[in-house]
Design brief:
The chain is mostly beta strands. About 0% of the residues lie in helices and about 55% in strands. The radius of gyration is 15 Å and the shape is globular.
Length: about 180
C-alpha cells in the first residue's frame, strides 16, 4: 500500500500492510489500527499518528528497516495509549530536521521489542514512556540519547545494548537530565 496525500484512515480495528518505498507524501493519522505491517524497507518522511479510544496498536517490521526521512515522526497523542513496535530497524532517529523521532502523550507508551534504533542525531525524550523489551539495541554512532523529567524509559528484558557500532565511542551513555 502506498498512500498519496494525507488525512485520516479509520482502520476499524483491522490491519494494514505497507509494501515499502517512500510510504506517504503527507501526514497520515491511523484511527483504530490494530496493526500495521511492513513488507519491505520503508521511508517515513511525514508524521504518522496513531489514535483511538482505549487504544493499543502494533507495528511489525518483519526485520525490515524503516528510515526516518526529513520530518518523519511517529506520534501517539492520546492519553493512556500504547503502540507496540516489533522486529524493526529504525534508521535516522534523532532530533532535528533530518532525523525522526517519537512524540508521546505524557501518559502513553511506545513499546519496542526486537528493535534496533540507529541514531543520526541527538535525541531528547521529554514526555511519555519508551519501553524497551527483549532484543533491543540503540546504535548511537556518537550521538546522545537523553531523558528529561517527564520522559520515562522502562526496561523489560535481559538488557538494552547501547552500541557505538565499532566507531569511536564519544558518548557511551544514556543521559538522564532534569528539566
Amino acid at each position: 500500500c502506498r498512500i498519496l496525500g494525507g488525512g485520516t484512515m479509520d482502520i476499524n480495528n483491522r490491519s494494514l500492510r505497507i509494501t515499502g518505498g517512500n510510504f506517504a507524501n503527507a501526514p497520515i493519522t491511523f484511527l483504530n489500527a490494530s496493526g500495521v505491517f511492513f513488507d519491505a524497507d520503508t521511508t517515513i518522511s511525514q508524521y504518522l499518528t496513531f489514535k483511538g479510544t482505549s487504544f493499543s496498536s502494533k507495528i511489525s517490521g518483519g526485520s525490515f528497516a524503516v528510515t526516518f526521512g526529513d520530518g518523519g515522526r511517529i506520534i501517539l497523542p492520546d492519553s493512556n495509549s500504547r503502540l507496540e513496535i516489533t522486529n524493526m530497524v529504525l534508521k535516522g532517529f534523532g532530533d532535528g530536521p533530518t532525523g525522526g523521532d517519537f512524540d508521546i502523550h505524557p501518559t502513553s507508551t511506545i513499546s519496542l521489542q526486537d528493535c534496533t534504533i540507529e541514531m543520526s542525531g541527538n535525541y531528547t525524550h521529554a514526555q511519555g514512556t519508551i519501553e524497551f523489551r527483549d532484543g533491543c539495541r540503540i546504535v548511537h554512532q556518537g550521538n546522545t540519547f537523553s531523558v528529561q523529567t517527564g520522559g520515562y524509559l522502562s526496561l523489560h528484558g535481559a538488557s538494552l545494548i547501547y552500541d557505538s557500532l565499532n566507531k569511536v565511542d564519544k558518548n557511551p551513555f544514556i543521559f538522564f537530565n532534569e528539566a
